[in-house]
Design goal:
The protein has 66 residues and is mainly alpha-helical. The radius of gyration is 29 Å and the shape is rod-shaped. It has 1 helix and no strands.
């Protein structure tokens, strides 16, 4: 750390250094690992089965099973 302007006291310099170190420590933390969303929140869970293959007449089977 380099003082470019002014003449800080040792206490002011220590306070500035403490703030910089605290911010660096927080930025270095990765926090809790992200988990994949559960199947419970998957919107595809509400579908009756597989989606129909695209093509003529696929719209007829897009909602009703079988």
């Amino acid at each position: 750390m380099k003082v470019v302007r002014g003449n800080p006291t040792p206490e002011e310099l220590a306070a500035a250094l403490a703030v910089v170190r605290a911010r660096a420590a927080v930025a270095g933390d990765e926090g809790p690992a992200r988990r994949a969303p559960s199947n419970w929140s998957d919107p595809a869970r509400a579908l009756p089965g597989r989606l129909p293959a695209p093509g003529p007449g696929a719209w007829r089977t897009s909602f009703w099973p079988g």
